[in-house]
Amino acid sequence: MLAPQGGGPSQDELKRVAAHRAVELVRSGMVLGLGTGSTAVHALDRIGALLRTGHLRDVVGIPTSEWAAASAAAAGIPLTDLNTHPVVDLSIDGADEVDPALNLVKGRGGSLLREKMVEGASRRFVVIVDESKLVPRLGASGLAVPVEVIPFGWSLTLRRLRTLFDGVPGFNIKLRTAATNAKASAFDESESKSEPFVTDNKNYIVDLFFEDGIHGDLNLISDEILRITGVIEHGMFLGLASSVIIARKDGVVVVDK
Ligand code: 5RP
To answer: Family, per the entry (predicted)?
Structure first.
């Protein structure tokens, strides 16, 4: 149980609580998927601390981004990759949105492709969020649903994505730049803020915005997005989460699929 003081725990404290709860699932000898972002970093730090004190041994981690690789190395977690370990025992990562069916939006930090590869290869994928990430339907926060595209002909790909959502009230679409997405900026190494945000895979991100969230069959919409040539992957993680650990001001809730 959290011990609220004054205004209660901060959002960062909630993130840490969720992360530490997830790390209780880590066992010695596991291959771990290492998440990206301000929530996942608490898990990386905790795993590193448990390795240092000998409470965990022989754990190796597959980072979901260059940022996660650097953060995990700083925390002292030995790294490996999906080629060496194609089956991951447990992945722990944050999310931008979680809907009631445990579908997710991820990738506002720009790491959705590697995240989906690592988390999709995991026996168990545990999502760690504070309660601000809960939404009635994906896209309903009004923030971006990211799509990773190849830079070649990106504006044609963007036009095709726009056509797909033609007529959806309040729909908007933008190429992500360091300047247009504050969260992306934290991970962005673009020299100029007005340059396109470049992912770890040297791709661009097109952000989709839905005023009232995404209505309709998410699997169908996913297929239609992925059918556009030039699209690499999108940030809807459908049916991938095994559990979501939600840190709320009044305590932690664990929802299993
Ligand atoms: C990065 C991600 C992150 O997991 C997601 O953006 C959540 O980040 P945070 O914990 O900082 O809110 O998908 O691509």
So the answer is: Belongs to the ribose 5-phosphate isomerase family.
Which one, of 10, 24, 30, 155, lies nearest residue 89 by Cα? 30
Closest among 182, 110, 179 to 146, alpha carbons compared: 110
Please report how the helices 40-52 and 11-23 are oriented relative to each other, as an axis angle in degrees rounded to 10.
50
Protein residues with CB under 6 Å of any ligand 1 atom: 35-40, 93-96, 106-112, 115
Give catalytic status of residue 24 as yes or no: no
How many residues does the structure list for the chain? Answer: 257
Model confidence pLDDT, tens digit, residues 69-93: 999 999 999 999 999 999 999 999 9
List the residue whose alpha carbon is closest to atom 2 of ligand 1: 107
Identified catalytic residue from 13, 115, 119, 233: 115
pTM of the entire structure? 0.93
What's the angle, vertex CA 82, arms to CA 242 and CA 80, rounded to 5?
Answer: 105
Report yes or no for ipTM above 0.90.
yes
